[in-house]
Amino acid sequence: MVLIIVLCLVGVGIIVSGALFVIVKNVTSDDNPFSLNTQELVRPEIGQCTAATETIVDWSAVVLDCSDPAATMKVVVSELAADGDVAAECSTPDKLLIVDGRVDGDYTVVHACAAPNLEVGRCYSGGIGGFQHVSGCVDGSIVAQLDRVLPGVTDTSVCETTSTDIAIKMSYISVTTMHFIDKREGSTYCFVPFTG
C-alpha cells in the first residue's frame, strides 16, 4: 500500500519504504514560471508587427513598428482562447504566439498567428521557423536576400536558379529552405544567396 502525503514546503517527491512523499513548495507568481500571468493583457492586434519568434510572449514588450527591419512577423489572426481550447491553427510559415494576462481580473489567453513581414532586398537568416533581419547583410551564419515575391504563384520550384554553373547552383542550396509559399496571400517568396 502506498501512502501519499502532501506537504506544502519545498517541491520534491521522495519514495521511502513504499510510501510516496510529495512535497510542494508554496510559491508566488514572481518565482514560479508556471503561474498564471498577473499583468493586464495586452492583446496582439491584426496588423501589428514584432520580431518575436517564441511561442509565449509579453506582447507589450515585443511590438515594433512594421517598417522596422527587425519586425519580421506581422499578426494576421488574433483570437481569445476559451478554457480548454487548442491553439489556433496557423498556416505555414506563420508562427503561433500565445499571449496571456488579466482582463477585468480574469485570467485570459489570446492565440495569435504572425506571418512573415519581409521586404524585397533585405537580408535574413533563419527560415520558416522564424526569420531574423541581418543588418547590412553581414553575419557569420547563412544569410539570404529576399529576391522577389511572386503573387499568384504557389510553387517554390520557381525560385531555383536556372544557371548551369556548378558554383552558383551550390550557393543556392543554402537558401532553398528559406523559400516559402504564403497560402493566405497566394504568393511565393524567393531568396538568393547574399553575394555582397
As residue ranges, the low-confidence spans are 1-34
Strand proportion, as a percent range, falls in: 35-45%
Strand segment tally: 13
Shape: elongated
Q: How many separate structural domains?
A: 3
Number of helices: 2
Global Rg: 23 Å
Rounded mean pLDDT score: 77
* Largest sheet report: 5 strands, antiparallel
End-to-end separation in angstroms reads 72 Å
Query: What's the helical proportion of residues?
Result: under 10%
Order of helices and strands: EEEEHEEEEEEEHEE
Read across the widest sheet, the strand sequence of neighbours is: 5-4-6-8-7
Classification by helices and strands: mainly beta
Defining key terms:
single chain, mainly beta, 3 domains, 5-stranded antiparallel beta sheet, 6% helix, disordered N terminus
Secondary-structure map with pairings?
Elements: E1 4-8, E2 12-16, E3 19-24, E4 49-50, H1 59-62, E5 63-64, E6 73-81, E7 95-103, E8 106-116, E9 123-127, E10 130-133, E11 144-151, H2 166-173, E12 180-182, E13 187-193
Parallel strand pairs: 1-3
Antiparallel strand pairs: 2-3, 4-5, 4-6, 6-8, 7-8, 9-10, 9-11, 11-13, 12-13
